[in-house]
Structures are given as C-alpha cells and as structure tokens.
User: What shape does this take?
Amino acid sequence: MNNRSEALRDVGKVVGIHGLKGDLKVRPHSGDPELLLSAESLCLRLPKGEMLAVSPCRQKLHKGQVLLRLQGYESINLVEELVGSTVLLPEDQFPELDENEYYWHQLEGLQVIDRRAGPIGCLQSMFSTAAHDTYVVDGEYGEVLIPAVGRFILEINLETRVMKVDLPEGLVPQK
Assistant: This one.
C-alpha cells in the first residue's frame, strides 16, 4: 500500500487458519469473493484494533471462503494472532460496477422504507446464503431479514440514502 490517504473498505473477516503454511480462511462480506481473489495489497484490522498492511502471495477459493497466504506470514505460528481480523481493501482496487450494482459500503446505513409498512429501519449488515445475499435491517420491528433480490428491492438512492422495498406479506406488520 502506498502512503497516500486511501479509503479502506471492509470486505471480509478472518475466521480461521487452513493448513500449516499459514493460509487464512477469510469469509467475504458479500457472495462475490473476487475482490479478495484479485487483491494486490490489503490491510488487516487486528482484533485489538491495530492496523497491519500486508501483501498476499497466494489467494484461492475454497468452500465459499478465500484462502489467503500473506508474504512474511507463511507459517501457522505467525498467523494465529490474525484470526478475527477484519480485512480491508483500498477503494482504488474496487472495479467499476454496472448500473444497479452496489458495494456493501455504499449500502450500509441506508434507511429502508417498505411501500406498505413505511419506514422499517436502518440497513445494518448483510450475509450470503447459497441462494442470494440477505440484508439485515434493524428498526421498530426489530431485526428484519430482506432477501437482496430484485422483486423485493424497488429502488436504491445513494444520494438520499434510502432503499425502497416491497416486503413479502407477513414479514412486518402492516400499518
């Protein structure tokens, strides 16, 4: 990573170690691991908050996770302290997306409004399933899980920070 001030974005979590050569198991925050597989440099926010700039020397997809080996950390003994770290990438490594595609950091914190129930809360997190990503919204109805699929997501407006949705019947009480 260079010395200029770059925005770092959270793209995954180190969830374990794979093998004796220090491969880290990284769970991507979205269903697409491509950012981690093509990263030239990255930063780890260690569990105690310290930042560590590192360079991958091996990246491989394995059972939905990315195995990441780091230069200078090619031993299980050297990477044990890295488990639990947040993986951050410089924003300039993110490729341009097509229209109606978004990175998680663009969506986090959006106000979510259902067409029938009105405001339901703030977009807090996202997780991936085999079928699709799922948005986690926290608000007056508690935690609401919304499938991130076109038929439920009506509009995303990054300028107004609003996501309009059409939730399935029964997901939240109707007003």
In short: The mean pLDDT is 88. The chain is about 5% helix and 45% strand. Helices lie at 34-38, 76-79, 104-107. The chain has two domains: 8-92, 104-165.
